Amino acid sequence: MGQIIGFIFGVIIAAIVLLIVSRLNLGLNVAGFNTAVIGAIVISLVSSVILWLLGLLGIRVGGGSFLDAIIWLVVSAVILIIAAKFIPGMTVQGFTGGIIAAIAMAVIYWLFSLILGPLVSPLPAP
Length: 126
Fold this sequence. Notes:
By secondary structure, this protein is mainly alpha-helical. The chain has helices spanning 2-23, 33-56, 66-86, 94-116, and strands at 28-30, 90-92.
């Protein structure tokens, strides 16, 4: 039961992050909260598939180096672009918009983690 509540909480936080980035006009546009919730779920699913595929290719992301951060940023932008193709009401303004939105999402997640502490650790990745 705790995992379900954690997942729901994570999706709600991710949806709020999507809405914040959308309202800042940083390359990502989301029509409303329902679209943001669907977007959070789709982004989580697309992220899982892409990370699985990268793992099959022997590419590990998240080792902590600067190169890993750059790779993760590019992967995050691609995830946003792919997810936006499946979600009516969500658009990403090209690859540059995806990069900027991914950076903004990372900063907002970081701020949430400072404020909410361990409650936001299991958030779905952008």
